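Anyone else keep sequences and structure tokens together like this?

Example one:
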Amino acid sequence: MKIAHDSRSAVATVENLHWHRAFATDGLAAGDCYAAWRDADIAGLSTRYETTPHEPFSVAMDWLDLGTLGIGSARITAQDWDRSRWKANHDHNDDLVVNVRHAGAAFVDVDGHRTVAPAGSIVLADMAAPMKHFSEASLSTGFALPRALAEQMLPQVRSLHGYVVAPDPAALLVSHLATIRASAGHLPVGSGPVIAQTILDLFAMTVTASMGAVPSDQGQHERALLVQLRAAIEDQLGSPSLNTARLSRMLGVSRSTLYRLLQDQGGVQAYIRTRRLARVAAALRDRGNRQTVANLADDWGFCDAAYLGRAFREMYGITPGDYRALHGMTLVGGSSLQAPR
């Protein structure tokens, strides 16, 4: 972990992750944009593909170094991409490339077999084989897995060339990478390898689930399932009907499996309550939030204000009203709030 020291204040700050701009056509003359991008050969794309723009060209490409994995992000105009057999045979690249499409479809052609990859899907490409595709103007994130690692994670990598994971099974990984795109700058550099492992776990689970295959690495599968479980809980946190039975049906796994995944947090129901109380506490700390305790109970799945009050005091040691006052607000008449004068 890198620590930056400010000699004036003697305060140490932890360095955060950062998306680095690898290339952008902003500020270039319109007629120079495409040639400048080709000449830059970012991530070897010019070496590995012949490309033909379908509209005035523009691009912005960013890179995030997670220590054990690099993630690329690109917003680019529509064009054809052609990885010829000659290039596949001669550039000595046999990675498995993972392209996560947040916006814009791709039309993939592998030896005459055509597939459409809509927005929200994931496209896999074996760089040891030729492939053509037309991409609409798009926003995507992606990463490349060395062949040896890809073959540890997934069976028959060559058979995955041109494979498209549909939006429904791809949704968790797509949304997870979108979140990383938006919030990586708030996380310390030291968290990079953990984030990278989570991405790889989710990727392996997404692909095997979409193919109806049995995961070969049970530990990896359970780590990815835990991420999926937590995401489902966060998404449904305000629903009073959120419980172990409902999550079991949503995720297609047994209640005992769900309990085991959250055993260190006291089990599923205890984890749900902890997360709900954390949301309530965040609302109480927010000076702009003037909701009553009863409103917060209704929003976050508690049966009434009294039950929320007891649960909150058990977790935080004080009542919701005292907690709010401690963070700069006072209760007025027990129902509405105003800032202290």
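And example two:
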Amino acid sequence: MLRRRLLPSLQALVRTADPAGPATEMLPVLDDAFVVRVLDLAIRVGETMLVAGAPASEVTSTIVRMTGVYGLDPVHVDVTYNAITVAHHRSGADRPVTLLRVVRGSAPDHARLQRIQALVAAVREGLGLDEAIARFRSIRRTPFAYHQPVVIASQALLAVGVAVMFGGNWLVITLSFVAAAAAALTQSLLARARVPFFFSQIAGAFVLTLVAAAAPLLELTGWDAAATIRPSVIVASGIVLMLAGLTVVGAAQDAIDGFALTAMGRILELVTQTVGVVLGILAGLETARVIGLGMEAPSTTLPFGPLPLQFLGAALIAVAVTVFNGAGMRIIVVSMGLSVVAWAGYIAASGLGFDTAAASGVGAFAGSVVGVVVAYRLHVPSVAITTAAILPMVPGAAVFRGLLGVVESGQSPSTLLTGFTTLAAAATIGIALAVGASLGIYLGQPLRASLGSIIRTRARVRG
């Protein structure tokens, strides 16, 4: 008797027990028309988020949560670089209900993304399906927040922010604004003509480089400010501008989360558009050399200006990025604060002896951690403020110095090697920014969840 009781007890410690009865589950009564409406709303919300640069994991979780609110469980979601597939298969049904939506291009609109997030929050709080569909249609019909001249002016303001960070005088700041505005206007006109963005990057970088190469001619005016013009600052500011729209953080997150196709698509897009900038600069440098406006490769790293100007420039860059991405006033203010936090992290790490790449990673980490928490509290998209926070650390000056060294190397192997080394260092900084920002987002999410639960507990206690 004891043996019969002991053996089952020991087996229970080692093996899981088989179910004693037949499997049962509660099945909500949902017709196909209702299921299609829910899936259509969710997949359109996911498409809007993916176009705005949100990581694939966030898009997937949003779709699953929205459909779950309306009783659809399980829902299978497949997100790739240019398509979203959603399927719901009820138990006992002959076939699943499957929807596919193609994602056409990327056009960041952070104000729209903010309204989408508010809609998702309302759905999770019990918003009816008919009202949710009506609100989403209203959001989709909302035009971009700013007119095209304002967008071009904000892009030029970004270049001004970079020039201020490097301590440029009034003439360098003015030329940076003019060069960036000319490049942005060129890209805008090419976009209207439906020219692929790769060639638009080449054209913008070419115009920018020619303006910078012609800047030393202003010394003929006799102005004191013209005697200290640094063309490298003008080109560096334009490089930061043309790399501002690249979804580095989103690509890194997708790769870490296991969304290989989406990550590879975004990485390929990053590489292609960066190559476009490189080709445009090389073409501009060669054209300038042919017409007698060649520039000498600088032998040292371009120094930053005084510390207050660095923070001022970082704030200006954040304002510019948020404006030409269509953000509202709340996102603009939050992005300014985060850019200061990220740059403070970079300065602190540099002061402790970290090299430029490591310090950039620390700055991106600090900005993204704070950004994730602040985004939750203020109901703003984390992708919007994180992008603005890390952009001041984009190595535009290093990219230009490396390219200039390659073009002007001539028969000097040492200059050529220095140019490639500088470009490799710039690539390392870019990777450090992506890794630091992604790590900050991952560590910030549980912190955000903990703070959210504490706030909800306090609210219940007060109530």
